[in-house]
Amino acid sequence: GAVVSQHPSRVICKSGTSVKIECRSLDFQATTMFWYRQFPKQSLMLMATSNEGSKATYEQGVEKDKFLINHASLTLSTLTVTSAHPEDSSFYICSARTGSSYNEQFFGPGTRLTVL
Amino acid sequence: GESVGLHLPTLSVQEGDNSIINCAYSNSASDYFIWYKQESGKGPQFIIDIRSNMDKRQGQRVTVLLNKTVKHLSLQIAATQPGDSAVYFCAETPSNTGKLIFGQGTTLQVKP
Lengths: 116, 112
Hints:
The structure holds two protein chains of two kinds. Chain A is mostly beta strands. Chain A has no helices and eleven strands. Chain A is globular. Chain B is globular and about 45 Å long. The interface between A and B is medium-sized, with 26 and 26 residues.
């Protein structure tokens, strides 16, 4: 149980285009989902927290107009990187939390974004 | 605060030896700690967790030690195997935030 999927697993796009990444909880309802970014040989950095049906809360320094997050259902959150540039190239990872366990997060497999 | 690492330290051990990976956490208000294993190109995989009211917890081949006085966390892996080769991250949850703050990570290399 507690499986989280991401789609796509990797994406290559041209500079200036927008890219949408999906995060799904497959066998549980996720009241809260988190989005992280990880640059090569670095740690995971929390970008934002999204609760189903409400606006996402962004961490300091993360542009909310550039990284659009939608959490429209209890099993799906999306991250859209708008007007992507090469410096947005990174590994994007989502995690999901159930309502019953405040601390435990289940991680997705990540999405590798490369912006040319 | 947030932890940012530019380079991951590396621990190299011989297969069969025990490994000890250390982590210094940043927030004295953190009350929940987790160790994750991350293989190349994959998401983090839960290994073991510990709450702040404990100082030691054991799992299968792994032990986590927590020293709140010096804000230090360690992961001990017994009889390290080649499949243990990965990057290991500690993570902390400041009380009542529900957020995970990741440490810088350590690369574990297991030599056959």
